Amino acid sequence: MADPTRVDELSEDEAAAELARLAETLLAANTAYHGQDAPTLSDADYDALKQRNLAIEARFPDLKRADSPSEQVGAAPADGFSKVHHAVRMLSLGNAFETEDVAEFDRSVRKYLGLGAEAALPYTAEPKIDGLSLSLRYENGRLVQAATRGDGAVGENVTANARTIDDIPTTLQGAPDILEVRGEVYMSHADFESLNARQEAAGKSPFANPRNAAAGSLRQLDAEITRARPLRFFAYAWGEVSAPLADTQQAAIQRLGDLGFTVNDLTALCDGPEEMIAHYAMIEQRRATLGYDIDGVVYKVNDLALQARLGFRSTTPRWAIAHKFPAELAWTRLERIEIQVGRTGALSPVARLQPVTVGGVVVSNATLHNEDYIAGRGAKSEEIRGGKDIREGDWVQVYRAGDVIPKVADVDLDKRPADSKPYDFPDTCPECGSPAPREPGDAVRRCSGGLICPAQVVEKLKHFVSRAAFDIEGLGAKQVEQFYRDCWIKEPADIFTLKKRYGSGMQQLKNREGWGDKSAANLFAAIEEKRRIPLNRVIFALGIRHVGESSANLLARHYGSWSVFHGAMTSASPDSDAWNDLLGIDGVGEVMAQSLVTAFELGPERDAIDRLAAHLSVQDAARPDTSSSPVAGKTVVFTGTLEKMTRAEAKARAEALGAKVAGSVSSKTDLLVAGPGAGSKARKAAELGIETLDEDGWLAMIDGL
Ligand code: IVH
């Protein structure tokens, strides 16, 4: 969203419609986050929508809805737990995102209290823990009730679960008769990682982040499950109290610490915005090494009498604010650089990081691309990151964009250890010791070991069984690694003799750890099923460099059968007829052609291919029947929204009918298929006089083919 608070161009009707949409979206997001522990929006997106909602309501106060998201905290409690009415509502916090918002917060507090700019007004500043809040009620020193926040007024009774958490005392000495202690339940990074490892070993899906793991663990109907989960608790606030804890926030927290609660030791007293921001910067720097997730810093007016005067707005206190960290970026230490060897021998450097949460996901690896990238140079030898290189031990800023592998955005040279040295990129393969030269014009070094390199072999095997290749159920990357390690499978052909070798006799698959009668039989059946396999899948599965899924499709369609393909590849030495025919395929260039020919030259790689083929019955590719296809050989472009098929489907269908599908309109385009919303491409096609059909016209044209 550009600037969520820009609402000046909205008409009243638009504003009303948008408020309705926001109420619906935010309610759904709230339910997913609080009720089902499965967030649908990132925190940053959620905050932006909430801000927008507030901005629209501020401009059109009359349009504020009865179910306005700004009036809601969290979500109504889930069924299954009994309900608890909070004696004092559990509220949320207003947010500050910019430094300027902190000064504005201080000004608004002063204004409300009628304090001048010079009057002393200290605040506490402490980490905002990213977990879930819990209210613990003690009566006469005994824990009688624990409740989640729920919607702020009514939460869930999780008393039995809370009793299993070590940080939560069940009895207190010297506490007021009634004391409600509030704080955050969370899970440390280390505990989260080991919990997820256990989950995966048990075949359960891992938690997305420590917050979800904590919420999922606390909200278990069976408290024994909670007991087995490593939860922790920080106390930072209170609800009903029969006698005041202290005069100041700081002293009250100290008192909770003395009563036996864990309080956060990064809490500081600040005398104004400048010190608050300095403390925020300090906490942000330490974020990665805390060992648990925080998503900002909370500032609270220290004087409790002033807190009482300030009171609350509908859902947030006037005396506190959360200063959030910017989204999706985090600083952490790069512990080591490791080199991974891929299926084509490429040496890929990977940063092993001290785990840090970036946008709700714990990140412990980031890609470093290649040698030049580490040295601070881009693809055209230009400087990147201002020419800063990346070293082991460096303090680095990592980011995630979408679902991509995390990357390193920046390096803090001020924090570079004095004895650090530039990273020395290996020129031999770390897995097999073969030379790893860098060809001119290539950004990566490659292991020259081929099939003697165990890393290349195992990666090739993983590729072979991957979804777009053989896709054998029950035989994934993990199983392939184990079978390779134990020498059960050394090359693809071995997969098809697995049953003969381990289906009966001394050593049997069903006796291996993690396997049984049923799973072994299922795997053998799944393998049998894949002996019959389409040509395009086999070509892709071979893992030949530069031959991706769509090239494999092109090759399969061109050659039609395994024997024709094999014959062509083995006789296609440069300048032969077979070579020229191969290069004649639209989409095959010299680099790919050379790579194919090399794979089929006499030698160990070709032998392995032939051994594999002996086990298969390769299905011929459906070659487009050019005699009846009106689009064979034509170049088609799809644009706009297609309603009866996906873009991928449309493309595959057109290609199957012998058409070439292009992405843009040019004089070479024969046909444009334009759905609703078609823009510049449709205009260009009209200018060039290119035949244009709508989706139905296209379907009618290819009907029955
Ligand atoms: S004070 C009346 N302090 O953040 C406000 N809240 O976004 C009482 N949180 O509901 C909350 N760390 O779950 C406070 N140090 C901290 C916090 C903290 C995390 C959570 C809490 C609250 C939410 C608001």
Overall average pLDDT: 90
pLDDT < 50 stretches:
none
CATH superfamily of the largest domain: DNA ligase/mRNA capping enzyme
Rg of Cα set? 32 Å
User: Kindly, what is the distance between the CA atoms of the first and last residues, rounded to a whole number of angstroms?
Assistant: 44 Å
Task: Output the CATH class name of the largest domain.
Answer: Alpha Beta
CATH architecture type of the largest domain: 2-Layer Sandwich
Q: What is the overall number of helices? A: 25
Bound molecules: 2-(butylsulfanyl)adenosine
CATH level 3 topology of the largest domain: D-amino Acid Aminotransferase, Chain A, domain 1
Q: Please outline the major beta sheet.
A: 5 strands, mixed
> What overall form do the CA principal axes indicate?
globular
How many strand units? 22
Assign a percent range to the helix content.
Answer: 25-40%
Strand content: 15-25%
Task: Give, in spatial order, the strands making up the sheet with the most strands.
Answer: 2-11-10-3-9
The structural domain count equals 5
Task: Give me the secondary-structure category.
Answer: alpha+beta
